């Protein structure tokens, strides 16, 4: 065979080999997915400051502007409802425009809304700035963000990673709540609002420079999975989110998951995170001490949620949910008996216990969404999260009204405990999907 032909064949073979090598995903010793998870963790921590503030604002705003607790609770409820209702659309927008762009814009909107509250003079401005702007921004930073990152970057260890990223919100509460309560107590609520705005803006460079939308962007397979090309951007994000909702709504597991998660939101973000500090203050406890107890909840929430992720990889998710909700309901029934002017051992036991159970429900809920809804699971979870926040919004408002009408929060604690018992039963009704 002529030498030129042999040379050409060798070059062609070498060229094909190089193409094959370039398309073969690298298998680094330290997988980039863990770096992406770390950036996501830091991002959620930075954005979590906004969730620490509402419970600290009720008394200062009531005293300065003479707004009723029901009015302030309404603004918080708008924030919580939009947080949930935005989540499924945010998941679809991440499929369309990428995680980095959506999260960077969301953090900027949170900062803007928080900063504008410094100059407000009327209750409608609180609803607009804190309720609508911060609600929309935080909704795009909701747990659907963690679910999207987990689904794209991990095939193995999904339960563990979900637990870690879910715990990031609690870590943010741990970092910011003592600082914000000290600022409110010693310098007023406005410096605390500015701190929230600056913390959200500080995370934007990390998101833009270090976060990547898909493993294929850096030539990798997902952790524990096979290499796949990056899918084309999905157009019609809003239409897809609504279509997924209508499809899921025709199935029983969706309504059971949405119902249990609504009760989860009512008993955590809506009740304890919003009203625990003013309720403890009603019993003579200093605001800084009550805020410190919420921060302790954040500490044990990290432990409980990561442990729940580990359990979810090994045990049946619906049974885990039933146990979590049942234990939470029992603990809430005892809380009115524990509130006192000073911190005492039974109260610390409640705080530790409630912290371990705070969002331990998230990993098994995401796992059940993934089991029943496959590729649409992140958007379905976004809608389930919407029910979580609607439940939180209802109780945030109802708790403020109950305090205005009855002079205490006792009726709300008891009602929430009964709802948690109902959620435990609902979780057991969810059927396992058969292949």
Overall average residue pLDDT: 82
Poorly predicted runs: 1-24
Shape annotation: globular
Q: What is the assembly state of the chains in this entry?
A: single chain
Structural class: mainly alpha
Compute the separation of the termini in Å: 57 Å
Strand tally: 0
Major β-sheet profile = none
The number of helical segments is 18
Rounded to the nearest angstrom, the radius of gyration is: 23 Å
User: What share of the residues does DSSP label as strand, in percent?
Assistant: under 5%
* Helix-strand sequence: HHHHHHHHHHHHHHHHHH
Helix content: over 70%
Quick summary of this structure?
With 435 residues, the chain is mainly alpha-helical. The chain is 80% helix and 0% strand.
How do the helices and strands line up, and which of them pair or pack?
Blueprint lengths: L2 H21 L8 H16 L1 H4 L1 H12 L3 H29 L1 H18 L6 H18 L2 H11 L4 H30 L1 H22 L26 H12 L3 H31 L4 H26 L4 H22 L6 H13 L4 H12 L3 H30 L3 H20 L6
Primary descriptors:
435 residues, mainly alpha, 18 helices, 0% strand, globular, disordered N terminus
């Amino acid at each position: 065979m002529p030498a030129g032909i042999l040379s050409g064949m060798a070059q062609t073979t070498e060229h094909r080999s190089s193409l094959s090598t370039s398309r073969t995903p690298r298998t680094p010793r330290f997988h980039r997915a863990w770096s992406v998870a770390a950036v996501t963790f830091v991002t959620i921590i930075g954005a979590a400051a906004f969730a620490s503030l509402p419970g600290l604002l009720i008394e200062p705003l009531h005293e300065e502007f003479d707004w009723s607790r029901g009015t302030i609770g309404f603004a918080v409820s708008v924030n919580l409802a939009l947080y949930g209702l935005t989540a499924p659309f945010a998941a679809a927008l991440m499929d369309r425009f990428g995680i980095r762009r959506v999260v960077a814009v969301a953090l900027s909107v949170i900062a803007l809304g928080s900063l504008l509250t410094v100059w407000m003079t009327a209750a409608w401005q609180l609803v607009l700035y804190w309720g609508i702007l911060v609600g929309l921004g935080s909704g795009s930073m909701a747990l659907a963000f963690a679910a999207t990152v987990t689904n794209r970057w991990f095939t193995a260890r999904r339960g563990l990673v979900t637990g870690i990223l879910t715990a990031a919100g609690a870590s943010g509460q741990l970092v910011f709540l003592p600082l914000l309560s000290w600022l409110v107590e010693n310098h007023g609520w406005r410096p605390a609002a500015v701190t929230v705005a600056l913390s959200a803006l500080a995370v934007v460079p990390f998101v833009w420079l270090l976060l990547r939308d898909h493993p294929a962007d850096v030539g990798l397979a997902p952790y524990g999975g096979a290499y796949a090309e990056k899918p084309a951007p999905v157009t019609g994000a809003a239409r897809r989110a609504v279509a997924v909702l209508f499809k899921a709504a025709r199935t029983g597991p969706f309504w059971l998951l949405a119902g249990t998660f609504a009760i989860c939101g009512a008993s955590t973000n809506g009740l304890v995170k919003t009203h625990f500090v003013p309720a403890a203050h009603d019993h003579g406890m200093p605001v800084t001490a009550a805020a410190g107890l919420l921060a302790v909840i954040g500490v044990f929430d990290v432990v409980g949620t990561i442990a729940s992720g580990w359990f979810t990889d090994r045990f049946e998710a619906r049974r885990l949910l039933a146990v979590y909700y049942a234990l939470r309901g029992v603990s809430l029934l005892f809380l009115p008996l524990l509130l006192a002017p000073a911190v005492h051992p039974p109260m610390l036991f409640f705080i530790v216990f409630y912290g371990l159970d705070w969002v331990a429900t998230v990993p098994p809920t995401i796992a059940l969404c993934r089991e029943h809804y496959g590729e649409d699971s992140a958007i379905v979870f976004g809608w389930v999260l919407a029910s979580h926040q609607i439940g939180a919004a209802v109780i945030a408002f109802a708790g403020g009204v109950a305090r205005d009408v009855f002079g205490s929060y006792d009726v709300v604690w008891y009602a929430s405990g009964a709802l948690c018992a109902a959620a435990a039963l609902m979780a057991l009704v969810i059927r396992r999907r058969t292949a």
